[in-house]
Amino acid sequence: RAKKVPNTNYEYFAPEIEEQTTWRLHLIRRLRSDFANRKLELWSQPQIELASEKVIGMEGLLRWPDGNGGYISPAEFVPLAEYSGLIVDIGHWVLEESCRRLQELKKLGYPHLRVAVNVSIPQFRDPEFVNKVKRLLTEYNLPPSLLELEITESVVMDEPQIVIDALTDLKEFGVTIAIDDFGTGFSSMSYLQKLPLHRLKVDRSFVKDIGVGESALIAETIVTLGNKLGLVTIAEGIEKREQANHMIKLGCDEAQGYLFGKPMPFNELIAFLAEHDANNG
Ligand code: C2E
Ligand code: MG
Ligand code: MG
Ligand code: MG
């Protein structure tokens, strides 16, 4: 927060800003060394089909151990990883780890489950990005349709042409694309048509107070829009049974949320799948 020096046009930065900058640089250095030392974890959160409650796939979510038994939220460190450019290498690791998991899921008898991966703007700015994704899928001998890339509206708005070109190429290759946190950004409706989308993720803020007031209306509008555009709709952040029921009524296809399963380490997800299968036929 810059402050104005009275009666001049000068601005100066308050000392707390300098402290924050030092802290951020410190975090970036730690993130770089923890990533190099393979300390980052990729957790998985199940995604289910609402009608059958069968697991259809999972989203990979980064976790950064804080050294005290806790974790630093990706909401906090992903922006630093983006700012520093580290996200290009971290993101590649996430993609490769996801491909490894798809192979393992196949071996374990789950050849249809797909894995979704969040992708940031610096990754798209890497001119090798599309080739890297194709190479991984080929190297791991995977049907590309099992890999889904999640992008937010802000990624599209930042670099529309680069993102549209990359995604169009990847979709032709068979990769599927989801638009994440839909409704929270400022996407122009015309981009929805230009993007080769497969899935639309309804942001959890609209699911939260479902049944009351405006967020319910927005959720309904987003699901209707998705359905009319021929996209699969998935509701994020389903915590309560009533929310799931309401989303089914609106015509939403799939869900992800604490009600069905929290993000968990991959080995726990495998145990979850076996148990879930036993309970859901
Ligand atoms: P996102 O992609 O929208 O991920 C969904 C977030 O919602 C996750 O937060 C998840 O833990 C949380 N969530 C899921 N179900 C529920 C629920 O029922 N209730 C509540 N309150 N929350 C729920 P998380 O894991 O903290 O991740 C935050 C964001 O960090 C992600 O939002 C994504 O934008 C970013 N992120 C995570 N992993 C990666 C990654 O590998 N690469 C990139 N570029 N970004 C990542
Ligand atoms: Mg996501
Ligand atoms: Mg989301
Ligand atoms: Mg989000």
Automatic annotation (TrEMBL):
Coiled coil: none annotated. The chain holds residues 466 to 746 of 746 of the full protein. This is Diguanylate cyclase (GGDEF) domain-containing protein. Residues 24-277 form the EAL domain.
